[in-house]
Amino acid sequence: MPARHIVVVTDENPSGISEGFRELGLEVLEDREQLNRIDPNLVLLYLNSMYRAIRSPIKSLALKARLNAAGVPVISWNRDGPANKGDKAWRLWLLRRGIFMDIYAAHTLQRSCGFARETLYLPNAAWHSHYHLGERTLEGLRSPSIYLRDVSFFGRTDPERYPEMRERHEFLVALRERLSQMNISCEFTDKRMSYAEQRDYIQTSRINLNSWAGCDTCYHGGYKGQEKSWGLPERCYGVQACGGFLISDHRKHAADDFRPEIEWVEYSDLDDCVNRIRYFLANFDHSRDIAEAAHRRVVREHTYSNRAQTLLSAADRWRAEQRKS
Fold first, then answer.
1. Lowest mean pLDDT: which of 152-161, 214-223, 286-295?
2. Which residues are bridge partners to 205 per DSSP?
3. Contact 291, 102 (CB under 8 A)
4. Across the beta sheet with 205-210, what order do the strands follow?
């Protein structure tokens, strides 16, 4: 029998992880219907979106049973915990029965119990075919003359279009006012940019910010001051893959992925953010030391190829346990 060499990915944002699997030499299918036309004994794993699977629970359970019989684990990767996309309470209750997936992979371990027998910490990653140094070098990014602004942020900031970003909007408005009083140049934008434009924007900003994320606020029943997500948004890897210097709001899992103050800098509140910005603008070389260390860490450990390999290893462990039992 031919060796297993196919991965099926129906995650909601499959491009990065699919590319990671392909870089490992595997065939990737992104259409669940294709499972009906291939031998499941050739499949290594099935990576899906639990939010989509729960909309058709009977079909999802039948598919899981068929795949499990062929030695294929069903893995769900949740990158919106603990907000869980504000999904309906009954759907989340049903998902926590532990029957819809074999492995629950998540970018945060908050309230992760009940989804599956095995929970796997699987953070976001840098989509390294888009977020990289490009034509610049780490040495070149040490030249102060290339920078066009002191502080920047790009992403969704309009609270009318994206209510879940209201806290981000309010923080950035307050920060802009404080920085303007100190003659620190800042630019916060939600304009659409190509990947090349994003790289250039990151690499010409002395300090890139991470502030808030949709998974922090989009709770079922609305945001009522709940604890923010421990997980790191994708930008926390992408900015650093480009060689940019990042200052982020507090993320508990950051200590699992980066060495604090060596590869990672965070702030606790508005005052702390202002103080951090002032310090690193006055200590440019220190900021570049951290940016370079973080870049090397991301390239080495936090790409989608790394995440793909982690999933393959988890699938192999699952099969080994099934053979024992």
1. 214-223
2. 149
3. no
4. 186-189, 149-154, 205-210, 246-249, 266-267
- Distance between CA 316 and CA 117 in Å, rounded? 15
| Cα–Cα distance measured from residue 300 to residue 34, given in angstroms and rounded to the nearest whole number | 33
Cα-only R_g, the chain: 21
Q: Which long-range contacts (CB under 8 A, 24 or more apart) does 56-63 make?
A: 57/94, 57/100, 60/100, 61/99, 61/100, 63/32, 63/35
Angle between helices 166-181 and 270-282 (to 10 degrees): 50
Please check whether residue 47 is in contact with residue 11, taking contact to mean a CB–CB distance below 8 angstroms: yes
The CA distance from 15 to 99, in Å, is 27
pTM over 0.85: yes
Under DSSP, is residue 285 helix (H, G, I), strand (E, B) or coil? Answer: helix
CA separation for the pair 317, 185 (Å, rounded): 51
pLDDT at 225: 74
Residue 74 makes CB contacts below 8 A (sequence gap 6+) with 45, 46, 48, 63, 64, 67, 68, 100, 101, 102, 103
C-alpha–C-alpha distance, residues 64 and 45, integer Å: 11
Assign 12 a pLDDT band (cuts: 50, 70, 90).
confident
For residue 79, the SS3 value is coil
The stretch 305-316 carries a mean pLDDT of: 98
Compute the half-sphere exposure of residue 210: CA atoms within 13 Å on the CB side of its CA. Answer: 27
